[in-house]
UniProtKB/TrEMBL annotation:
GO molecular function: ATP binding; corrinoid adenosyltransferase activity
Subcellular location as annotated: Cytoplasm
Gene3D superfamilies attached to this UniProt entry: Cobalamin adenosyltransferase-like
Gene Ontology CC: one annotated term: cytoplasm
Top-level taxon: Archaea
Protein name: ATP--cobalamin adenosyltransferase
Alphabetically ordered keywords of this record: ATP-binding, Cytoplasm, Nucleotide-binding, Transferase
Domain (Cobalamin adenosyltransferase-like): residue spans on this chain: 3-164
Length: 178
């Protein structure tokens, strides 16, 4: 099978269910941003990370394929590859676990610190954009609302893990100074 099909040369792309839509459709922007977040997370994972963190991030990479698949499937009656409440609860459990190692925030912090933490903060911003684009899609088409919640929690988790990576590497949070 060749990597190029030429079926998208006219500016359209295929969705699940053999539907074709414009590559400028909000659905494409939403799951494209999810794909970008996943690729950015791959860059983070290229760094040496503690096992508890890397195992969570690898699981999230797989889950992001579910999010993208969910967003690419306009048939909400099709129950395969859908974001579930269990996936969201798993993110919340990771947030609670990792946050318990951190001091409470008293200031806003800037993205930064060690390279892997900085890269994860960047990935967090890509996830925020994916969330925004998914909200825009939901304003146009009906979607699984769990996708929005999942992306919201995921950016929170990345914020917490970014702080944790810095802490475990002996780096303080980079405080915002006014």
């Amino acid at each position: 099978m060749k990597i190029y099909t030429k079926t998208g040369d006219d500016g359209n792309t295929g969705l699940q269910g053999n539907l074709r839509i414009s590559k400028s459709h909000p659905r494409i922007f939403a799951y494209g941003a999810v794909d970008e977040a996943n690729a950015s997370l791959g860059v983070v994972l290229a760094n040496p990370l503690d096992n508890d963190i890397s195992s969570v991030l690898i699981k999230i990479q797989n889950d992001l394929f579910v999010v993208g698949s969910d967003l690419s499937n306009p048939n909400l009656n099709d129950v395969k590859n859908r974001v579930t409440l269990g996936m969201i609860q798993e993110l919340e459990q990771h947030i609670d676990k990792f946050e318990s190692e951190l001091e409470p925030l008293t200031n806003f912090i800037l993205p930064g610190g060690v390279l892997s933490a900085s890269q994860l903060h960047f990935t967090r911003t890509v996830v925020r954009r994916a969330e925004t684009l998914t909200v825009q899609l939901a304003e146009k088409d009906e979607i699984n609302s769990n996708c929005i919640i999942y992306l919201n929690r995921l950016s929170d988790l990345f914020f917490v893990i970014g702080r944790l990576i810095n802490k475990r590497n002996g780096r303080d949070d980079v405080l915002w100074k006014t």
